[in-house]
Amino acid sequence: MSLLVLLAAAAVSATGTETDPDPAWRCTAKHYGAFVSPSGTSAKWPVLKALPEHLRNKRSILLSTSGAYAGGKGYVMYVDTKSGNAYIEQSAGTPDSIVIFGPLPKIACADPAATDILDLAQFFMDTYAEDVTAGDRKALANHYSRRGTIFIGGEWKEEIGFDKLSSEYAKSWKPPVTFRWQGLAYEKLGDQSVMVTGGVARSDKAGAETTSHSYAVLLVKEDGVLRIRMESGAPPARPQLSRR
Fold first, then answer.
1. pLDDT value at position 15?
2. How far is 143 from 138, CA to CA, in rounded Å?
3. Higher pLDDT, 21 or 201
4. pLDDT tens per residue across span 176-212
5. Do 106 and 86 touch, CB atoms closer than 8 A?
6. Which string of DSSP letters, residue by residue, matches 144-181?
7. For the domain with range 3-20+115-233, which CATH number is right: 3.30.565.10, 3.40.50.300, 3.10.450.50, 3.30.230.10?
């Protein structure tokens, strides 16, 4: 059976019309961005000594640039998906000018249903990578379809039920030492599904060379959230398939 046929079969619309609330982070950024400018912030936010360690080197959302004059302040927002809080970093270009505000609550979108499915997909892939590097077995399993997931590679294809996949993660999966997506591209297949293609770079042992593999995943909405219905190429996270 061809890959295109498998994709078409897997993309059957799931039930539920709610939008995943987590991508409301872009609405949160818009809300807090209204309080900052190169001259400073007009809000009285709590101040921290430092950004939480687990958020260091994570991708940030630009709120405001420092402007064209010396001493101007720039602002970026970091997202803690686990706690549901945001942290804002203020900087004037030197290490001693950095101020961290937070934790600040997530702000819901005025119209959550207006969030585009491509925004949901990008947030999904970012969160998925975070769960891989954190070694969160339960969170990883929860990213997969409750209807089962189709795995495709070379000349083999296998469909794994959700309960079996969850058991594999709980009992036999080990997190890689390094893991990152490479050149992900997103294609909307309708209001209920997105195809993501690209690559993944990973190493499984300390000091081992990082290897890259092609990767494709089909995300479908189920009960208002995106879940993995199909993975193709070299699966970046799950244990060995039970059959080859």
1. 33
2. 9
3. 201
4. 888 889 999 999 998 899 999 999 888 888 888 888 8
5. yes
6. B-TT-EEEEETTEEEEE-HHHHHHHHHHH----SEEEE
7. 3.10.450.50
